[in-house]
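Protein fold
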Amino acid sequence: MVGVAQFLREAPSGSLMARIPRRHVPHLTGATTLVTALALTMGPVAPAAGAPVPGGAGSDPTPASTPADTTPSPTPTSDRSGTAPPSTAPSTPTPTSDSSPSPTSGTTSDGTPGTTTPSGTDRGGAAASAALEQQQEAVDDVTAELDAKKQDIPDELAPSVDRLTDALVAVSDPRTPPQQRDGTVRSAQRVAAALDAIADPATPGAVRAQLTGLVRQVASALDAASRPGTPTEDARLRTLVVARTTSVLRLVADQDAPPDVTSDLVDTAHHLLSPRQGAAATADPSAPPSASSGAAAHESAESLHEATAVETASDPNTSDGRRKELAESAHQAGSSPPGDPGAKEKRDRMERDVKKAVQDQGLPDEPLGKAAELCTNSVFEAVPDATLAEDLRHLVPAAWDSEGVRDFWKSEEAANDTLDVYAQLRNEKIAESALAIRRMIPGLADSLPADELYHSLGLHARDCLRAAVLLDSEAGVESGNWLSAAQEV
């Protein structure tokens, strides 16, 4: 049981289309597709330093080594069934680096008027290539681990493990937004550790039953999110909700909470992992598309906030008292029936409980570069890419703005004043550019004001507030209303 606890205790981190029948493919088909495509497109890549889920909000990315810069002609990639896609399919993503962005005029985020030039790093796609290879290694590793553990788990759970590895194969498609791939890997890693507890003869039967039920739902939810044709934003949000919800697996396996608290959190997790219902599923088909999409977006935001409450309550550093409060309020908010006149009051209570639990832990003792990295990654996860594209358009390279960003993926600390930021553009290329922290953090504060910070980011709100404090003290730069929020902690 000690191994399970250590493995799961990582730092914190509308309607679906009809299922398209699967064909039987080897579990590593997607991995081979992506690695082959990258090799043919970019040339040989040097091995990168290992990390479970590179770049996600729930992990600390490791700088990757630099590959050789060769660019043979690209080769079409295989689709999920293993056959070549039609000529109209998006091309394989090609890492790119924006070295000469066009200047943009206006006012910078730190209030300085005039012309600004987003900084870029000309590494010939090396950084993006290494980041993609490191991410795919994580996919391959957890897929192999799940396959190996099938022999130790109950036979009735094997189909769920197969479904989860199918989802990992699906997100290995180079066209999958890398952020969705990160979330799928993070959830799969937690499931892999939960399987150890399920297979352990010393695990109480009630605990094993809770874990088994959750694993089945996680596999089904990720399988649904990875199906071809699922809208990108829907898949992104669904994967994020699942990733945050799976944090409860560690708490259940370690038996870290009283049975009533665990029961409330598990019930909320079941609700979050169940097939989508409510606003998105019951919307009036005759209603205007904008009304239906608005209802679905509202439901998705509520699910994300509930998942944040579960993740915060499951954190080992959350006090027993705060965990009990959160478990109760999240359960009440999640089980509120449609039309409940008290629903808003229940959700407000849950959000207040999240804020109190996060504030209790104080601001982290970390330098500006690390705080900015963790903050940026968590905001990239929680805020729609369209919102980020609008709020960050004045500081990203001109090529990103003109081509359009499909997925703001992640950032890595390059220096105490600079972040290497990665994004998937709408032409499927993975781009990387160095951006100044003194401009990035204020831009993110525009996208996510302080009154939304806690229930959107959970414990990673602390990283954003820490970055705001350091920017103010070290550079005299304000980050929206984040600084005033930090002074309350």
Notes: The first strand starts at residue 96 and ends at 97. Residues 289-314 form the longest helix (26 residues). Residues 169 and 449 are 37 Å apart (CA to CA). Confidence is low (pLDDT under 50) at residues 1-56, 59-94, 96-124, 277-295.
